[in-house]
Design brief:
Strand content: 25-35%
Order of helices and strands: HEHEEEHEEHEHEHEEHH
Radius of gyration: 17 Å
Helix content: 25-40%
CATH architecture: 3-Layer(aba) Sandwich
Protein name: Purine nucleoside phosphorylase DeoD-type
Strand order of the largest sheet: 5-8-7-6-9
GO molecular function: purine-nucleoside phosphorylase activity; uridine phosphorylase activity
Keywords: Glycosyltransferase, Transferase
Function: Catalyzes the reversible phosphorolytic breakdown of the N-glycosidic bond in the beta-(deoxy)ribonucleoside molecules, with the formation of the corresponding free purine bases and pentose-1-phosphate.
Shape: globular
CATH superfamily: Nucleoside phosphorylase domain
Family: Belongs to the PNP/UDP phosphorylase family.
Largest sheet: 5 strands, mixed, barrel
Low-confidence stretches: 1-6
Amino acid sequence: MSISELRETPHIKPNGVEIAETILLPGDPLRAKFIAETYLEDVVQFNDVRNMYGYTGTFKGKRISVMGTGMGTPSMSLYSWELIHIFGVKNLIRIGSCGAIQDQLNLYDIVFAMGASTDSNYVQQYNLPGQYSNIASFSLLEKAKKVADEKGLPVHVGNVLSSDFFYNADQTALEKWSKMGILCAEMETAGLYMNAAHAGVNALTILTVSDHIFRHEQTTTEERQTAFTNMMEIALELA
């Protein structure tokens, strides 16, 4: 039996439940549960291994799945690789939180990650003869921007930082990234974009500003799970 016919992994065991070709990927599994219960119809849970909840349902008549990915490039890369290569997912949309590092961003603002700079070494596995630029799939980015415009939701589109460091011993690191025009910091997008590019599928990250790092502003844990609804509603329209 080939790996593509296995249809389960040690981390995702759907027990025959379909995983849709389009999937929303919040880091927090409780955010996945909230989206499934709030927005989807005919919902069936397809995963609970390690409490990484995954669900499939319909939104406006279209099949769509949602699943948590955990924190950091290793976790996102593991789950997105399996979703792509084992379960045939074609459109992967990360919806997450970020820490703003530009003055024009405020709490609850929405960011579309057109590109994802990174301090991760994940790209080294591809043995590329140079530096690689991690970019979103234009088809998803274009559609997401159109949805946001139709909803009257302003968004920031640009480069984000996918960092392996939540607590960085180099206290000047984010200031340096900010000077290069990076909008915000998060921990997963670069790995997702690399997996998608290498497999020839589509990926996009949509973020909501949960913290402003330089202004020491932040939202609560509960708000991160349930209050970032504008981001969720844009992503759902991409199915």
